[in-house]
């Protein structure tokens, strides 16, 4: 799908990957770009720069997602592209707090569910639409320093697969973005860790990859090509797990129970 003349919504757009994608959608000639985030002040600055619409939104709340879609449609018309990108960083292993687990689940999984509920009926009726969810390479591989992050990002990938199976031959394109280390505030707060082994990308490079993948309507969007090889290695789980433990020891990431990051 070409973005030109399309109505695009981007969550988590006050900075990082979301902001870069929103700016790129505008540059590509989108009919309208709607940016959503909880950081209302920064969001308005982004919207003003790209002549888009800013909507303050907590993606963990279904009512906010419904309102976001409604405001986008009132301003620009039916939503063609919904980039469900908002994310958080929470550290810890099985001992992470219930709140950290619940917040991670709400933002990394249920926000995508809420978007699909709001958009799929109309997209099916029009036989056209694009649902793009941000997961992470951690959703394909592992997140050694954070069980809540890695587990919920795996769930995000599984949800995208389900949506692609259900609707991929009915006019709705589904993609899932799975980057490794990207130069964002979340990465800087958490520390690069093992994710930076293959380099840290600028958000503009990620936006370029997303545009290329959308043009080709690829399901899996990888910013770091090495991830394909790592996925292949994972087929031999026992060997892969031994290798991940060695990487854990080498990087010092997440070795102790209770270690983790809070963002």
UniProtKB/TrEMBL annotation:
The keyword Oxidoreductase applies. CDD domains: SDR_c. Belongs to the short-chain dehydrogenases/reductases (SDR) family. This is Dehydrogenase. One of its GO terms (molecular function) is oxidoreductase activity. SUPFAM superfamilies: NAD(P)-binding Rossmann-fold domains. It comes from the Bacteria. It comes from Reyranella soli. It holds the Pfam family adh_short. PROSITE patterns: ADH_SHORT. Keywords: Oxidoreductase. InterPro entries: NAD(P)-bd_dom_sf (IPR036291), Sc_DH/Rdtase_CS (IPR020904), SDR_fam (IPR002347).
């Amino acid at each position: 799908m070409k973005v030109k003349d399309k109505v695009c919504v981007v969550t988590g757009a006050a900075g990082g990957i979301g902001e870069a994608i929103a700016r790129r959608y505008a540059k590509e000639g989108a009919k309208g770009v709607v940016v959503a985030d909880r950081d209302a002040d920064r969001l308005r600055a982004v919207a003003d720069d790209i002549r888009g619409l800013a909507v303050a939104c907590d993606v963990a709340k279904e009512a906010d997602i419904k309102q976001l879609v409604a405001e986008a449609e009132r301003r620009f018309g039916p939503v063609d592209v919904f980039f469900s990108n908002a994310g958080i960083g929470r550290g810890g292993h099985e001992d992470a707090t219930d709140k950290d687990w619940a917040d991670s689940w709400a933002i990394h999984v249920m926000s995508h569910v809420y978007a699909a509920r709001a958009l799929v009926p109309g997209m099916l009726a029009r036989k056209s639409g694009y649902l793009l969810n941000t997961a992470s390479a951690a959703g394909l591989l592992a997140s050694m320093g954070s069980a809540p992050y890695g587990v919920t990002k795996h769930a995000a990938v599984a949800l995208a697969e389900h949506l692609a199976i259900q609707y991929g031959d009915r006019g709705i394109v589904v993609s899932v973005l799975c980057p490794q280390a990207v130069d964002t505030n979340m990465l800087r707060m958490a520390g690069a860790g093992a994710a930076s082994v293959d380099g840290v990308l600028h958000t503009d490079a990620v936006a370029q990859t997303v545009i290329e993948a959308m043009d080709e309507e690829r399901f899996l969007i990888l910013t770091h090509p090495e991830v394909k090889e790592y996925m292949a290695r994972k087929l031999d789980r026992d060997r892969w797990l031994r290798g991940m433990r060695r990487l854990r020891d080498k990087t010092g990431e997440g070795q102790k129970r209770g270690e983790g990051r809070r963002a």
